[in-house]
Amino acid sequence: MADGYCREPMTLLVESNTPAPRMLVFGAIDHAAALARIGSFLGYRVTVCDARATFASRGRFPDADEVVVEWPHRYLRSQRLDGGTVICVLTHDPKFDVPLLTAALRLPVGYVGAMGSRRTHEERLVRLREAGLTDRELSRLHSPIGLDLGACTPQETALSIAAEIVAHRHRGTGVPLRTGVPIHRRGVPSPDAFWPAVHLDQGVGINLLGAEVPYPQALSSSQESR
């Protein structure tokens, strides 16, 4: 380029940097340590938060970028979040879950998931409705969290959660590629955009492209047992 100030052509290098998307993991349990590791691997800035200082220690979560001792809903409300943020609730305690999810499901974040059995999920929905959440807000909740991989260990469960997050972010179907779904998608909007949650009913899954696909009723035993 050349102008009145520069008589010779000039090449400019323009470099832009954006902060890493955030993964907020609530509940300092073994599954949180595994999820922090895979979240970091996927490029997230990972925060583990728990109100119990005994469990929320740096030594237990070496792969997290930060470990916070605070009531989950209070910490969440103190943060500036965006559509690239994912929130994973692993607390298994209504006194933590309900105020946290009430706040999370009203934020413009990209993904909100909560761990627990189907019975826990149904009981949680009742409490969240009593807290004033609408059906539209509740439809954003991914619970029980994760895809059906047959996961048993904390590491396998973390993989199933990460798989659902990736599928949700990129509008993946979650079905095997050998079924004929496109390997590479064209014209997919920004990964930071919000996509409707997956709903499961009577063994049929509604994938993120709006089509019905067979979906096993069984969840990973590691969630159903809790």
Outline the fold blueprint.
Blueprint lengths: L21 E5 L3 H12 L3 E6 L15 E4 L2 H6 L8 E4 L4 H11 L6 E4 L3 H13 L4 H4 L2 E2 L11 H17 L29 E2 L2 E3 L5 E3 L6 H4 L2
Parallel strand pairs: 1-2, 1-4, 2-3, 4-5, 5-6
Antiparallel strand pairs: 7-8, 8-9
Comma- or semicolon-separated keywords:
226 residues, alpha/beta, 3-stranded antiparallel sheet, 9 strands, 30% helix
Task: Write a structural description.
This protein is an alpha/beta fold. The protein has seven helices and nine strands, in the order βαββαβαβααβαβββα. The protein has a six-stranded parallel beta sheet, with helices on both faces. The longest helix is centred in the last third of the chain and has 17 residues. The protein is globular and about 70 Å long. It starts with 21 loop residues before the first strand and ends with a helix.
